[in-house]
Amino acid sequence: MACSKKLYFIVLNLIVLSLSVHGKLSINFYSSTCPNALNIVKQGIAKAIKKDARVGASILRLHFHDCFVNGCDGSLLLDDTSTFQSEKTARPNNNSVRGFGVVDDIKTSLEKACPGVVSCADILAIGARDSVVYYGGPFWKVRLGRRDSRTANRSAANAFIPPPSLDLNNLTSNFANVGLSFKDMVVLSGAHTIGFARCVSFRPHIYNDTNIDASFAKSLQQKCPRSGNDAVLQPLDYQTRFRFDNNYYKNLMVKKGLLHSDQQLYNGNKADKLVLRFASKPGHFFAEFAKSMINMANINPLTGSNGEIRRNCRKPN
Ligand code: HEM
Ligand SMILES: *[C@@H]1O[C@H](CO)[C@@H](O)[C@H](O)[C@H]1NC(C)=O
Ligand SMILES: *[C@@H]1O[C@H](CO)[C@@H](O)[C@H](O)[C@H]1NC(C)=O
Ligand SMILES: *[C@@H]1O[C@H](CO)[C@@H](O)[C@H](O)[C@H]1NC(C)=O
Ligand SMILES: *[C@@H]1O[C@H](CO)[C@@H](O)[C@H](O)[C@H]1NC(C)=O
Fold it and tell me: Is 1.25.40.10 the CATH classification of the domain at 24-161?
Protein backbone atom coordinates (compact mmCIF):
# COMPACT_ATOMS: atom_id res chain seq x y z
CA MET A 1 0.00 0.00 0.00
CA ALA A 2 2.63 2.51 1.16
CA CYS A 3 4.87 1.35 -1.63
CA SER A 4 2.28 1.84 -4.37
CA LYS A 5 1.42 5.24 -2.93
CA LYS A 6 5.06 6.21 -3.15
CA LEU A 7 5.24 4.97 -6.70
CA TYR A 8 2.13 6.98 -7.50
CA PHE A 9 3.79 10.16 -6.24
CA ILE A 10 6.99 9.46 -8.11
CA VAL A 11 5.03 9.03 -11.34
CA LEU A 12 2.99 12.15 -10.60
CA ASN A 13 6.17 14.11 -9.97
CA LEU A 14 7.67 12.91 -13.22
CA ILE A 15 4.55 14.04 -15.08
CA VAL A 16 4.60 17.44 -13.37
CA LEU A 17 8.32 17.77 -14.02
CA SER A 18 8.02 16.89 -17.70
CA LEU A 19 5.13 19.31 -18.09
CA SER A 20 7.07 22.12 -16.49
CA VAL A 21 10.18 21.32 -18.51
CA HIS A 22 8.11 21.27 -21.67
CA GLY A 23 6.14 24.41 -20.82
CA LYS A 24 9.19 26.11 -19.25
CA LEU A 25 7.13 28.98 -17.84
CA SER A 26 4.41 28.69 -15.20
CA ILE A 27 1.65 30.91 -13.87
CA ASN A 28 2.70 30.29 -10.24
CA PHE A 29 6.38 30.99 -10.73
CA TYR A 30 6.58 33.80 -8.11
CA SER A 31 3.86 32.58 -5.74
CA SER A 32 6.31 31.61 -3.00
CA THR A 33 9.32 33.83 -3.87
CA CYS A 34 7.39 37.07 -4.46
CA PRO A 35 3.71 36.55 -3.66
CA ASN A 36 2.84 40.21 -4.21
CA ALA A 37 4.57 40.50 -7.60
CA LEU A 38 1.41 40.47 -9.69
CA ASN A 39 -0.24 43.12 -7.52
CA ILE A 40 2.81 45.36 -7.62
CA VAL A 41 2.89 45.30 -11.42
CA LYS A 42 -0.85 45.82 -11.71
CA GLN A 43 -0.77 48.84 -9.39
CA GLY A 44 2.26 50.26 -11.17
CA ILE A 45 0.47 50.02 -14.52
CA ALA A 46 -2.76 51.55 -13.19
CA LYS A 47 -0.87 54.45 -11.61
CA ALA A 48 1.08 55.07 -14.81
CA ILE A 49 -1.97 55.03 -17.12
CA LYS A 50 -3.79 57.43 -14.81
CA LYS A 51 -0.93 59.88 -15.34
CA ASP A 52 -0.45 59.17 -19.05
CA ALA A 53 -3.43 57.59 -20.78
CA ARG A 54 -1.30 56.26 -23.64
CA VAL A 55 1.46 54.57 -21.72
CA GLY A 56 -0.27 51.18 -21.38
CA ALA A 57 -0.34 50.94 -25.17
CA SER A 58 3.36 51.75 -25.16
CA ILE A 59 4.05 48.96 -22.64
CA LEU A 60 2.12 46.43 -24.77
CA ARG A 61 4.28 47.40 -27.72
CA LEU A 62 7.48 47.10 -25.67
CA HIS A 63 6.58 43.48 -24.89
CA PHE A 64 6.03 42.78 -28.61
CA HIS A 65 9.31 44.44 -29.63
CA ASP A 66 11.13 42.57 -26.87
CA CYS A 67 9.76 39.16 -27.88
CA PHE A 68 10.49 39.51 -31.61
CA VAL A 69 14.22 40.03 -31.00
CA ASN A 70 15.88 36.87 -29.62
CA GLY A 71 12.79 36.05 -27.58
CA CYS A 72 11.13 37.68 -24.56
CA ASP A 73 14.29 38.37 -22.60
CA GLY A 74 14.10 42.06 -21.71
CA SER A 75 16.81 42.89 -24.27
CA LEU A 76 14.90 45.95 -25.48
CA LEU A 77 15.17 47.54 -22.04
CA LEU A 78 18.98 47.68 -22.03
CA ASP A 79 20.75 50.97 -22.71
CA ASP A 80 23.93 51.20 -24.80
CA THR A 81 27.08 49.74 -23.26
CA SER A 82 30.66 49.66 -24.48
CA THR A 83 30.07 46.15 -25.90
CA PHE A 84 26.66 46.44 -27.60
CA GLN A 85 24.27 48.95 -29.11
CA SER A 86 20.83 49.28 -27.60
CA GLU A 87 17.75 48.02 -29.45
CA LYS A 88 16.06 51.26 -28.40
CA THR A 89 17.69 53.09 -31.30
CA ALA A 90 16.98 50.46 -33.96
CA ARG A 91 14.85 51.80 -36.84
CA PRO A 92 11.43 50.58 -35.63
CA ASN A 93 12.16 51.82 -32.09
CA ASN A 94 14.07 55.07 -32.39
CA ASN A 95 11.97 58.11 -31.39
CA SER A 96 9.02 55.77 -31.06
CA VAL A 97 9.20 53.30 -28.16
CA ARG A 98 8.26 54.67 -24.77
CA GLY A 99 7.28 53.54 -21.28
CA PHE A 100 10.76 52.70 -19.95
CA GLY A 101 10.26 54.93 -16.89
CA VAL A 102 7.16 52.93 -15.98
CA VAL A 103 9.17 49.68 -16.16
CA ASP A 104 11.86 51.28 -13.96
CA ASP A 105 9.30 52.35 -11.34
CA ILE A 106 7.73 48.89 -11.21
CA LYS A 107 11.17 47.29 -10.99
CA THR A 108 12.08 49.58 -8.08
CA SER A 109 8.95 48.49 -6.19
CA LEU A 110 9.64 44.83 -6.94
CA GLU A 111 13.26 45.10 -5.78
CA LYS A 112 12.03 46.55 -2.50
CA ALA A 113 9.53 43.74 -1.98
CA CYS A 114 11.69 40.84 -3.18
CA PRO A 115 15.22 41.76 -4.28
CA GLY A 116 16.66 39.91 -7.26
CA VAL A 117 13.59 37.79 -7.95
CA VAL A 118 11.34 39.17 -10.69
CA SER A 119 12.81 39.57 -14.17
CA CYS A 120 12.40 42.61 -16.39
CA ALA A 121 11.13 40.35 -19.19
CA ASP A 122 8.32 39.18 -16.89
CA ILE A 123 7.49 42.78 -15.94
CA LEU A 124 6.81 43.43 -19.63
CA ALA A 125 4.69 40.28 -20.02
CA ILE A 126 2.57 41.06 -16.95
CA GLY A 127 2.45 44.79 -17.70
CA ALA A 128 1.21 44.14 -21.24
CA ARG A 129 -1.63 41.98 -19.91
CA ASP A 130 -2.54 44.47 -17.18
CA SER A 131 -2.60 47.31 -19.71
CA VAL A 132 -4.94 45.40 -22.02
CA VAL A 133 -7.24 44.70 -19.07
CA TYR A 134 -7.08 48.35 -17.94
CA TYR A 135 -8.29 49.52 -21.36
CA GLY A 136 -11.21 47.06 -21.23
CA GLY A 137 -9.69 44.09 -23.06
CA PRO A 138 -9.46 40.40 -22.16
CA PHE A 139 -7.68 38.88 -19.15
CA TRP A 140 -5.36 35.89 -19.38
CA LYS A 141 -3.02 34.14 -16.94
CA VAL A 142 0.55 35.13 -17.73
CA ARG A 143 3.14 32.33 -17.75
CA LEU A 144 6.18 33.45 -15.76
CA GLY A 145 9.79 32.58 -15.10
CA ARG A 146 11.56 34.34 -17.97
CA ARG A 147 15.09 35.52 -17.19
CA ASP A 148 16.84 38.58 -18.57
CA SER A 149 19.45 38.71 -21.30
CA ARG A 150 22.91 40.10 -20.63
CA THR A 151 23.04 41.65 -24.06
CA ALA A 152 21.05 43.41 -26.76
CA ASN A 153 21.34 43.38 -30.56
CA ARG A 154 20.39 46.45 -32.56
CA SER A 155 20.78 44.81 -35.96
CA ALA A 156 18.53 41.93 -34.89
CA ALA A 157 15.89 44.51 -33.89
CA ASN A 158 16.19 46.04 -37.36
CA ALA A 159 15.86 42.62 -38.96
CA PHE A 160 13.02 41.11 -36.93
CA ILE A 161 10.59 43.88 -35.96
CA PRO A 162 8.15 44.33 -38.87
CA PRO A 163 7.96 47.79 -40.51
CA PRO A 164 4.53 49.17 -41.52
CA SER A 165 5.48 49.05 -45.21
CA LEU A 166 5.10 45.26 -45.40
CA ASP A 167 2.49 43.49 -47.52
CA LEU A 168 0.42 40.57 -46.28
CA ASN A 169 2.82 37.83 -47.38
CA ASN A 170 5.81 39.57 -45.79
CA LEU A 171 3.92 40.20 -42.56
CA THR A 172 3.07 36.50 -42.53
CA SER A 173 6.67 35.40 -43.00
CA ASN A 174 7.86 37.93 -40.43
CA PHE A 175 5.64 36.32 -37.80
CA ALA A 176 6.53 32.82 -39.03
CA ASN A 177 10.19 33.73 -38.43
CA VAL A 178 9.49 33.82 -34.69
CA GLY A 179 7.16 30.80 -34.73
CA LEU A 180 3.85 32.67 -34.86
CA SER A 181 1.02 31.70 -37.20
CA PHE A 182 -0.93 33.64 -39.80
CA LYS A 183 -3.83 33.73 -37.37
CA ASP A 184 -1.57 35.03 -34.55
CA MET A 185 -0.51 37.81 -36.90
CA VAL A 186 -4.07 38.90 -37.72
CA VAL A 187 -5.16 38.61 -34.09
CA LEU A 188 -2.17 40.42 -32.55
CA SER A 189 -2.46 43.28 -35.04
CA GLY A 190 -5.72 43.96 -33.20
CA ALA A 191 -3.49 45.55 -30.54
CA HIS A 192 -3.71 48.58 -32.83
CA THR A 193 -7.10 49.23 -31.25
CA ILE A 194 -5.13 51.37 -28.77
CA GLY A 195 -2.31 53.89 -29.03
CA PHE A 196 -0.80 56.12 -31.67
CA ALA A 197 1.46 56.24 -34.70
CA ARG A 198 3.63 59.06 -36.02
CA CYS A 199 3.07 60.77 -39.35
CA VAL A 200 6.28 59.21 -40.66
CA SER A 201 4.77 55.75 -40.08
CA PHE A 202 1.52 56.28 -41.99
CA ARG A 203 2.54 58.89 -44.61
CA PRO A 204 3.02 56.45 -47.51
CA HIS A 205 -0.39 54.91 -46.83
CA ILE A 206 -2.32 58.19 -46.89
CA TYR A 207 -0.59 59.56 -50.00
CA ASN A 208 0.28 56.55 -52.14
CA ASP A 209 -2.17 53.74 -51.40
CA THR A 210 -5.53 53.30 -53.09
CA ASN A 211 -7.06 50.96 -50.51
CA ILE A 212 -7.94 53.81 -48.15
CA ASP A 213 -11.18 55.74 -47.70
CA ALA A 214 -10.74 59.00 -49.62
CA SER A 215 -12.10 61.37 -47.00
CA PHE A 216 -10.19 59.55 -44.25
CA ALA A 217 -6.97 59.99 -46.25
CA LYS A 218 -7.74 63.64 -46.88
CA SER A 219 -8.33 64.46 -43.23
CA LEU A 220 -5.09 62.72 -42.27
CA GLN A 221 -3.21 64.66 -44.93
CA GLN A 222 -4.24 67.87 -43.15
CA LYS A 223 -2.33 66.64 -40.09
CA CYS A 224 0.52 64.90 -41.86
CA PRO A 225 1.97 66.86 -44.80
CA ARG A 226 4.10 65.29 -47.56
CA SER A 227 7.17 66.48 -45.72
CA GLY A 228 7.74 67.70 -42.19
CA ASN A 229 5.72 67.05 -39.03
CA ASP A 230 7.16 63.54 -38.92
CA ALA A 231 6.40 63.18 -35.22
CA VAL A 232 2.74 64.26 -35.33
CA LEU A 233 0.59 61.55 -33.76
CA GLN A 234 -2.69 60.05 -34.90
CA PRO A 235 -4.65 57.30 -33.16
CA LEU A 236 -4.32 53.81 -34.64
CA ASP A 237 -8.06 53.35 -34.01
CA TYR A 238 -9.70 56.65 -34.97
CA GLN A 239 -12.86 55.76 -33.03
CA THR A 240 -11.69 54.67 -29.56
CA ARG A 241 -7.97 55.25 -28.99
CA PHE A 242 -7.93 54.26 -25.33
CA ARG A 243 -10.47 51.45 -25.47
CA PHE A 244 -9.39 47.88 -26.12
CA ASP A 245 -12.26 46.73 -28.37
CA ASN A 246 -12.77 45.31 -31.87
CA ASN A 247 -13.11 48.66 -33.65
CA TYR A 248 -9.73 48.08 -35.28
CA TYR A 249 -11.31 45.38 -37.46
CA LYS A 250 -14.45 47.43 -38.13
CA ASN A 251 -12.21 50.27 -39.31
CA LEU A 252 -10.41 47.96 -41.73
CA MET A 253 -13.75 46.96 -43.28
CA VAL A 254 -14.39 50.60 -44.24
CA LYS A 255 -10.78 51.17 -45.34
CA LYS A 256 -9.88 53.27 -42.35
CA GLY A 257 -6.81 51.44 -41.16
CA LEU A 258 -4.05 53.92 -40.29
CA LEU A 259 -0.99 51.94 -41.40
CA HIS A 260 -0.30 50.28 -44.74
CA SER A 261 0.26 47.02 -42.82
CA ASP A 262 -3.11 47.37 -41.07
CA GLN A 263 -5.10 47.70 -44.27
CA GLN A 264 -3.25 44.72 -45.75
CA LEU A 265 -5.39 42.56 -43.46
CA TYR A 266 -8.55 43.55 -45.31
CA ASN A 267 -7.60 43.88 -48.92
CA GLY A 268 -9.34 41.07 -50.79
CA ASN A 269 -7.01 38.36 -49.49
CA LYS A 270 -7.13 35.45 -47.11
CA ALA A 271 -7.05 37.58 -43.95
CA ASP A 272 -10.44 39.13 -44.78
CA LYS A 273 -12.35 36.21 -43.33
CA LEU A 274 -10.72 36.62 -39.91
CA VAL A 275 -11.21 40.38 -39.97
CA LEU A 276 -14.92 39.91 -40.67
CA ARG A 277 -15.20 37.43 -37.81
CA PHE A 278 -13.43 39.68 -35.30
CA ALA A 279 -15.41 42.72 -36.44
CA SER A 280 -18.71 40.95 -35.86
CA LYS A 281 -17.77 38.87 -32.80
CA PRO A 282 -15.81 40.83 -30.17
CA GLY A 283 -15.84 37.80 -27.86
CA HIS A 284 -14.00 35.73 -30.48
CA PHE A 285 -11.41 38.46 -30.88
CA PHE A 286 -10.86 38.68 -27.12
CA ALA A 287 -10.47 34.91 -26.72
CA GLU A 288 -8.07 34.67 -29.65
CA PHE A 289 -6.10 37.70 -28.53
CA ALA A 290 -5.50 36.12 -25.12
CA LYS A 291 -4.30 32.89 -26.78
CA SER A 292 -2.01 34.65 -29.24
CA MET A 293 -0.51 36.87 -26.51
CA ILE A 294 0.45 33.68 -24.67
CA ASN A 295 2.01 32.35 -27.88
CA MET A 296 3.97 35.56 -28.35
CA ALA A 297 5.10 35.65 -24.71
CA ASN A 298 6.39 32.07 -25.11
CA ILE A 299 8.93 32.99 -27.78
CA ASN A 300 12.33 31.66 -26.78
CA PRO A 301 12.48 32.63 -23.08
CA LEU A 302 15.68 32.31 -21.06
CA THR A 303 14.99 29.91 -18.19
CA GLY A 304 16.80 27.84 -15.55
CA SER A 305 20.31 29.17 -15.12
CA ASN A 306 20.41 31.01 -18.45
CA GLY A 307 20.51 34.80 -18.36
CA GLU A 308 20.06 36.63 -15.07
CA ILE A 309 17.56 38.58 -12.99
CA ARG A 310 18.61 42.13 -13.71
CA ARG A 311 18.63 44.48 -10.72
CA ASN A 312 18.18 47.48 -13.01
CA CYS A 313 16.26 46.83 -16.23
CA ARG A 314 18.52 49.23 -18.12
CA LYS A 315 21.81 47.43 -17.51
CA PRO A 316 23.26 43.97 -17.11
CA ASN A 317 24.24 43.15 -13.50
C1 HEM B 1 1.75 43.17 -37.65
C2 HEM B 1 2.85 43.88 -37.66
C3 HEM B 1 2.97 45.20 -36.96
C4 HEM B 1 3.45 46.35 -37.50
C5 HEM B 1 3.95 46.52 -38.93
C6 HEM B 1 3.36 47.36 -36.49
C7 HEM B 1 3.77 48.67 -36.65
C8 HEM B 1 3.51 49.69 -35.76
C9 HEM B 1 3.84 51.07 -35.98
C10 HEM B 1 4.53 51.62 -37.21
C11 HEM B 1 3.40 51.78 -34.89
C12 HEM B 1 3.53 53.28 -34.68
C13 HEM B 1 4.94 53.62 -34.23
C14 HEM B 1 5.24 55.11 -34.33
O15 HEM B 1 4.90 55.73 -35.34
O16 HEM B 1 5.86 55.65 -33.40
C17 HEM B 1 2.82 50.84 -33.98
C18 HEM B 1 2.26 51.17 -32.76
C19 HEM B 1 1.76 50.25 -31.88
N20 HEM B 1 1.81 48.88 -32.00
FE21 HEM B 1 2.27 47.86 -33.69
N22 HEM B 1 2.84 46.82 -35.36
C23 HEM B 1 2.59 45.50 -35.59
C24 HEM B 1 2.12 44.58 -34.67
C25 HEM B 1 1.87 44.86 -33.35
C26 HEM B 1 1.66 43.88 -32.32
C27 HEM B 1 1.75 42.37 -32.53
C28 HEM B 1 1.41 44.56 -31.16
C29 HEM B 1 1.14 44.02 -29.78
C30 HEM B 1 0.60 42.83 -29.55
C31 HEM B 1 1.44 45.97 -31.48
C32 HEM B 1 1.17 46.98 -30.59
C33 HEM B 1 1.25 48.33 -30.90
C34 HEM B 1 0.77 49.37 -30.02
C35 HEM B 1 0.00 49.17 -28.73
C36 HEM B 1 1.10 50.59 -30.63
C37 HEM B 1 0.87 52.00 -30.05
C38 HEM B 1 1.99 52.32 -29.10
C39 HEM B 1 1.92 53.70 -28.46
O40 HEM B 1 0.95 54.43 -28.61
O41 HEM B 1 2.91 54.04 -27.76
N42 HEM B 1 1.76 46.11 -32.81
N43 HEM B 1 2.90 49.57 -34.52
C1 LIG C 1 17.81 58.10 -33.50
O2 LIG C 1 17.18 59.36 -33.57
C3 LIG C 1 18.01 60.44 -33.23
C4 LIG C 1 17.14 61.71 -33.15
O5 LIG C 1 16.37 61.84 -34.30
C6 LIG C 1 19.12 60.55 -34.24
O7 LIG C 1 19.98 61.61 -33.94
C8 LIG C 1 19.91 59.23 -34.23
O9 LIG C 1 20.89 59.24 -35.24
C10 LIG C 1 19.00 58.03 -34.43
N11 LIG C 1 19.73 56.82 -34.18
C12 LIG C 1 19.87 55.87 -35.10
C13 LIG C 1 20.69 54.70 -34.70
O14 LIG C 1 19.35 55.90 -36.20
C1 LIG D 1 22.78 40.21 -34.02
O2 LIG D 1 21.76 39.94 -34.93
C3 LIG D 1 22.19 39.79 -36.27
C4 LIG D 1 20.97 39.72 -37.15
O5 LIG D 1 20.09 38.73 -36.73
C6 LIG D 1 23.08 38.56 -36.35
O7 LIG D 1 23.54 38.38 -37.68
C8 LIG D 1 24.25 38.73 -35.41
O9 LIG D 1 25.01 37.56 -35.38
C10 LIG D 1 23.79 39.07 -34.00
N11 LIG D 1 24.92 39.45 -33.19
C12 LIG D 1 25.21 38.87 -32.04
C13 LIG D 1 26.40 39.39 -31.31
O14 LIG D 1 24.54 37.95 -31.59
C1 LIG E 1 8.36 40.01 -49.50
O2 LIG E 1 8.03 38.72 -49.99
C3 LIG E 1 8.53 38.42 -51.29
C4 LIG E 1 8.09 37.02 -51.64
O5 LIG E 1 6.75 36.85 -51.48
C6 LIG E 1 10.04 38.53 -51.30
O7 LIG E 1 10.50 38.33 -52.63
C8 LIG E 1 10.47 39.90 -50.80
O9 LIG E 1 11.88 39.94 -50.68
C10 LIG E 1 9.84 40.21 -49.45
N11 LIG E 1 10.15 41.59 -49.08
C12 LIG E 1 10.55 41.94 -47.88
C13 LIG E 1 10.76 43.40 -47.63
O14 LIG E 1 10.73 41.13 -46.99
C1 LIG F 1 4.94 57.60 -53.07
O2 LIG F 1 5.54 56.75 -54.03
C3 LIG F 1 6.55 57.39 -54.82
C4 LIG F 1 6.98 56.44 -55.91
O5 LIG F 1 7.36 55.19 -55.36
C6 LIG F 1 7.69 57.81 -53.89
O7 LIG F 1 8.69 58.46 -54.62
C8 LIG F 1 7.14 58.75 -52.82
O9 LIG F 1 8.17 59.05 -51.89
C10 LIG F 1 5.98 58.12 -52.09
N11 LIG F 1 5.37 59.11 -51.22
C12 LIG F 1 5.15 58.91 -49.92
C13 LIG F 1 4.52 60.02 -49.17
O14 LIG F 1 5.45 57.84 -49.39
Answer: no
